[in-house]
Amino acid sequence: MAGQATKWVYEFSEGSKEMRDLLGGKGSGVAEMTRVLGEDKVPAGFTITTDACVAYMEAGREEPEGLEEQVAEALADLEKKTGKKLGDDDDPLLVSVRSGARESMPGMMDTVLNLGLGDRSVEGLAKKTENERFAWDSYRRFVQMFGNVCRGVPGEKIEDAIKRRKRDAGVKDDTELSVDDLKGLVDDFKALYRDVTDEDFPQDPQEQLAQAIRAVFDSWDSPRAKEYRRINHIPDQWGTAVNVQQMVFGNKGDTSCSGVAFSRDEITGAPEPSGDYLVNAQGEDVVSGVRTPRDISEMKEQMPEAYSDLMDILKTLESHYKDMQDTEFTVEEEHLYMLQTRNAKRPAQAAVRFAVDAVNEGLLTKEEALATIHADKLDALLHPTFEANADYDVLAKGVSASPGAAKGEIVFTADDAVTASAAGRDVVLVRPFTEADDVAGFFAAKGIVTSEGGKASHAALVARGMGRPAVTGASALEIDLGSKEVRVNGTVLHEGDRIALDGTTGEVTVDDVPLVDPEVDENFEQILEWADEIRRLGVRANADTPEDACRAREFGAEGIGLCRTEHMFMAADRQPKMRAMIMAESEEDRREALGNLLPLQQKDFEGLFEAMEDLPVTIRLLDPPLHEFLPDLEEISQQVERARIERTPDLEDLEHTLERIHSLHETNPMLGTRGVRLGIIHPEIYAMQVQAIVRAAKAVTERCGRAPLIEIMIPLVAYERELQKMRKLVEKVVADENGGELEVQVGTMIELPRACFVADRIAQEADFFSFGTNDLTQTALGFSRDDVEGGFLSRYMEDKVLDRSPFETIDKPGVGWLVRLAAWTGREAKPELKLGICGEHGGDPESIAFFDMAGLDYVSCSPYRVPIARVAAAQAQLG
Amino acid sequence: MAGQATKWVYEFSEGSKEMRDLLGGKGSGVAEMTRVLGEDKVPAGFTITTDACVAYMEAGREEPEGLEEQVAEALADLEKKTGKKLGDDDDPLLVSVRSGARESMPGMMDTVLNLGLGDRSVEGLAKKTENERFAWDSYRRFVQMFGNVCRGVPGEKIEDAIKRRKRDAGVKDDTELSVDDLKGLVDDFKALYRDVTDEDFPQDPQEQLAQAIRAVFDSWDSPRAKEYRRINHIPDQWGTAVNVQQMVFGNKGDTSCSGVAFSRDEITGAPEPSGDYLVNAQGEDVVSGVRTPRDISEMKEQMPEAYSDLMDILKTLESHYKDMQDTEFTVEEEHLYMLQTRNAKRPAQAAVRFAVDAVNEGLLTKEEALATIHADKLDALLHPTFEANADYDVLAKGVSASPGAAKGEIVFTADDAVTASAAGRDVVLVRPFTEADDVAGFFAAKGIVTSEGGKASHAALVARGMGRPAVTGASALEIDLGSKEVRVNGTVLHEGDRIALDGTTGEVTVDDVPLVDPEVDENFEQILEWADEIRRLGVRANADTPEDACRAREFGAEGIGLCRTEHMFMAADRQPKMRAMIMAESEEDRREALGNLLPLQQKDFEGLFEAMEDLPVTIRLLDPPLHEFLPDLEEISQQVERARIERTPDLEDLEHTLERIHSLHETNPMLGTRGVRLGIIHPEIYAMQVQAIVRAAKAVTERCGRAPLIEIMIPLVAYERELQKMRKLVEKVVADENGGELEVQVGTMIELPRACFVADRIAQEADFFSFGTNDLTQTALGFSRDDVEGGFLSRYMEDKVLDRSPFETIDKPGVGWLVRLAAWTGREAKPELKLGICGEHGGDPESIAFFDMAGLDYVSCSPYRVPIARVAAAQAQLG
What we know:
The structure is a homodimer. Chain A has about 900 residues and is α/β, with parallel strands linked by helices. Chain A is about 45% helix and about 15% strand. The first copy, chain A, is elongated, with a radius of gyration of 33 Å. At the A-B interface, helix 22, helix 24, helix 26, helix 27 and helix 29 of A face helix 22, helix 24, helix 26, helix 27 and helix 29 of B.
């Protein structure tokens, strides 16, 4: 390109749908329609590239060299093509100036219509069209929009002026205003313009165009646009294109209209087009809601020819784009013009129905159909929700921590949840935050609400793991555990009061909202079947109970990728036994306490093995630091102090408990004595767990005549010798228990950076690796999940240090490299090494695509994410 | 080697000093001496390789194929060479069978002397040597040693038998026993042998030899040998060689002797040979201490010829080996034989003196001289110690946490230490463990003793950083902070009692031991000068105060590589101001509190800059989590409870404090809101620190006419945008303060695995990287330093999961790779990027060699380690 100026401007006829990055969604859509539908169906125009916007921004809001000239040239071509001149006194060309980024950002950026009018050309337009009202309506719209968009004339002042004119004229609707009323409005708007800018409204159409282009560029950096991008993960560096297009007029009387149309029903996906239109109106009237639009089906009667034309075009576009289309159109005196087309955003059920129908209609192949689905959104189909049209007041809004909706009576402690649930009552556990102690309460409750914490808080993680709906960080709730009250905006709720939450939206209400059950209909089943045909990655589930395991199998899990044995110790009746094990001060006492846990653990494993039949079950031996199972330091400290002051007889016991908490306390438990380190210090714990596994397997084999496939997983390995020792321990216990016939593999979680660097050595001792990407993220980034969510992580995302939470989508440059490194060197050392991943990323479509590429054998995620993972895994293969 | 059997046996004449790995230290030494001194100075023999030992171990204590034959062959050769036959009735060949690993493991493994004797050949020997006493003394020694070493006859039973015989004979010394007594002893030992083994003492010399070889192999895996290897980081996989050598006899009367000789004084390094010898004795008598040996100088009178021979040989060996030699010799009837030579282990002062003398004598080049020094041991020359010959009772022994000795009155709190020290009293801070709160007490105390924690505990780290002697984990001390008492083995110590500690040995005593000041004598200076000529790596110091900075310069630091600004906030008078800053609940309050800290911080920086003149000063902005500066949760909880019960008026304040502690509390502070994360959330903190830096620099420039070289370091960066933001902040403050003339570089600590993977991107924003290998070790390995030392780390070393603490010597496969990766990609992105390391590994010689190889520019360590680092850096270059 040396010596050649950058091309900033493309005529529509030069573009195509492949040029989306450069021309934006709208620009490439209009260009493609021009090619596919012909020039008479699409008003002519040109697009200023996103690169021009980026150059403008980078230069500190200075138009790049050559832009002015290229716009002038393109305008001259447009004038030649239309036979009209911008600002012409007799027959003026009018244009729209619209934004259009790579990804649609609906309503976030600016648009100016009817540009090119002035005090003289409006008269020419009136004469030429023999429609004075139309001309003045167009002019007042232009002055209004230009003032508001390009120079910041406040919207409310504009609305006030219109209201005043309507009141004076005694009419209700804009369309009822007379020509004189409209002329008066133009004067009103000009006066407002002068007030705000200290300048007269510009009559030079070239000046109008230049300012409008600038305004669109600037709107890329408006606060609302930035906020939208932050939420939707759209990079600030993309910029917006600007589309300059000949105006066509839906406001030329009763044979004209403007509307939006979908090629299929945008809510259900049913194969009938849907949409709205407004007679005698411009496009923004349809969107703004000033007048109530009509359903597109009524057009068939009112404008049969344009309607039939539109139906044909929707079909053409759909098969051309191979996706459901969302279009804008205008009918000007019975002639249909298409202004925009794009792939329709749609809820999950519509996406699924379209995909299945499209294959059946021969429109798409299965592969193409799968690619149209946003896997992450399928979540909505897998959980109960509030009924869509239900009427209720939102009491508080928090973080969408775990999807699904639930209702029940308020309880404030895990113990109360267990008791009430045992008595057959539905309860919602309401707490400021939750801790390991509370897990029994999660089992018992229908849903969880907390006033603190975010998506990665303990409450959110445990709730998602168990498939319990949860709203976290609902900070409007003041929860007083002492008095068992929730105060919120003047209302006080007590234990036993009913409450409802929707973990998909983050809403909490006291109204009795009807819940809708999830519908895994035949379309969804069909999609999943196709996904299974295509995907290479296996999909397993993280499940700790037989119920979870059954749900996982229903959703199509091909095994359990992670059974967290510590969750088995958290049930209310087991905690005291677990505590006794931990408090044991001799190996002998500990062995005795372990003996009490053994039959319980064995029973759990039997349930799991029966549920999973001959599918593999990966069991992780005890992982968390022991003090997680002990009472709270602060609580016991205070009890000790009280006992000291009041000289109560339990002082000695309490002091002993406090001492034990001290001796087990760790400054950074995440990096302390847990995982395999426990196994090495207290081999008797792991030995008991393996015993329970082998005994359960033998019992199930006898009962069902089929042996389970067992994978024993050692967590937190950093050194190959750790695994070597534990492998020996496992093998010894299996032999001692006469479990020689069983298929027992031994592997490890790879969840520390060091393990990734020495994966080749660790592989020598392992039958499989399962990447623990939660912990790997914590260590690679130095982020304690418990602390940074609700801590600095949200600030980091606001400040754009990060685009998204590394706990949701895998951090590719850091954590991703570690995974690749370990997968690569591990396989090099042992080609048959099985590789999986069982962190939360196993349920995230973008991360799944990464794991597919990294060559893993399977992902494992919470049961409710299994269908999503199946679809995402198929999409990963499709690339 | 296909088709050819492994060579397991080498005759001495086949070996050399280069074959140490295969032949062991002794085997290669004897072989080399054979070559250098001639065969008549070294008794003939052969060596069985370490590989044979390894093969024997791996086969489950089974001799490898071919070994038996090769030994027989070598023995036949030996018999031919000596003209004698093993076990011959008339003139038997006697041999010694000695262990000899790659590294000397003195006294750890087994040896059998006089092998080849039996009931018949002893008579032949008597006749042939015309010395019946000698023959029977040799035989009883053999039966005694063989029984003990090869078959486990208990040493005490042997001693009892000897005692009984001496008592019966009425003599005091072994040499006074008659031939009949010795015969009786042989009978005694044979009886003991039968008792233990149920077998008769073997008369077949081949059988004796085979058993002795086995015994030496087995002794490699004896508990004491394993323990020794663990402590000295000798791999279990090396194995030991076995040396079979013709016996020569120091016990043939008054013209015979055995002894050990050093080529120079082994304590001082003075250039006169030193050593001990015993007339009419075998080598083990000299070592065992049964008789008191004479000083080697007395040999000059007693055996002038042998003495002069020995002196010549010592010189020859020293110049041949180019190192001080530690030898064993025997004089048999006036003929000198050399039995072993090896480089002499020696204390630091001897090592330094030898190195300097050797260069002056032309024996070694500077480079060769430097290579003879064990850099780590130089530490002993840099701290006061207990006087070497002082007589004192050890009250308790703990971990050698921070080197040096100190004495003073016991205090139990940091506050008391500050008060007493201000009053001019020397104090030792005695606590169960220490916390951030206590740091002011470290400044004030002469030394620190704790009953908990290890080498990486808070107390140890802070003490080493400040150069305060410390003993940690002295678990015999029961410290009761409530009653201010220390109970230990029945003694009770109170506040104000005097105590002394030696952090180099880990000893604590109440005796008034004299302390010896360190001596950086001219020899040491000379060594350091040579090191500076040779090394490529720069050496800086970690220093937070002007005093530290001055000490660092005295020790030759070329700059400050790490100034931890948080230490400046820990002085007793500043903590309340710091606390006010943290407790501030609005940005305004925080700014005010910061305003109070600013002048103090500025003064600190002025001191540092003045001390360092024009050397670079790297200042790390605030790093630790804020709650480290807050009161203890447990203490405040209990105060709240007390205030509640007693309804005291301070309840509200206390509750507020507790709430604030809660809100700042983090589950894993190491991975929480600290480092750059604080800087992004509270930019006003970093802004204040930069202000203080710039103002200090300007003041010092004005005062001294020379501007300091400032490097501002941002800790805990994981994302390039973090550094980008902080760089902008620093640049803005510098500009606002008119600091434009100053040389201010901005860089970052690389201390998170992610940072290493994106080092190329981070380098774009950085003038320098300084590797924070402490935190990098914590995150890469998932080891919380505070928790794992004293926790599972010692267990891991016992169990051989780890050979040494990764906090002492860098973990090369994990952390080392991260460092290399970041150094490599960082430099690739920015070739002029300055690279340093400021973790504790910066003072560890083995780690320094690694950093030199990884291409870093400098290491930074505690002031007291600077001389060691200078020597180690030179050695790294020498390879």
